[in-house]
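INSTRUCTION: Work out how this chain folds

Fields: amino acid sequence; protein backbone structure tokens

Chain under study, with its fold:
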Amino acid sequence: MRSRAVWALPPVAVLALVFLYPLALVVQQSLSPENGGGAFDAYASVFASQSFREALGTTVWLAVGATAGCLVLGFVLALIIAFVPFPGARAVAKFIDVFLSFPSFLVTLALLFIYGTVGMANGAWTGLTGAAEGPFHFLTTPWGVLLAEITYFTPFVMRPLLAAFSQLDTAQLEVAAGLGARPARIVRQVILPEALPALAAGGSLVLVMCLNEFGIVLFTGAKDVTTLPMLIYGKAILESDYAAACVVAVVNIAISVGLFGLYRVVGKRAGA
């Protein structure tokens, strides 16, 4: 037992140095305003600002909306890939694994090529109608950010679902179908209960990732969409207000860690 503790010390020390020390510096900076004052003056100033409250609300509703969309779309697509035989189903499942390695801005750029101001959709519209500009301008709105996040994060829900579906006993489906159950009832009473742990895992991961997403909001060019990561960037880079940026970062970290802790607690109780 003692030897295990000794062998565990080096990796724990490295993790603490790489991850915990920078976080400690962020917390310290948030409690040390550059213009002096009390330790929590920066927190009071940030919490009282309208920009912070709007950014917090935007971040939460985008994260919740994207997570809900990913859960619904991911479940439907995973059902089709796993249980509806079609040519190339295995290749599609393999592509999902590759898609998970893509940076988020690539998906955003792809959407810009399609729906951007000079994208394919607007170009086709102006070519057909002779109009000066096309009708598709939603990518620079919150709905465009929501679409980009759902497009990018849906495979993060599909991957655990496909793994869960691969372990499902197909005999249950055959028995249910043999007893005359309709496909919707089979999905609701047989498949969905088995998929709930995978849905919870994928949904919680997507929720935390959406709360911290920066690249999608930046590359869509949605100037009126300010999330907490964008607010951190603006405070630190554009305004050079590092104390305020660290305060927002601490709030963002606290929300993410709190959601992860809640997921673990609920997961353990559900497993018990």
Observations:
- The chain is about 80% helix and 0% strand.
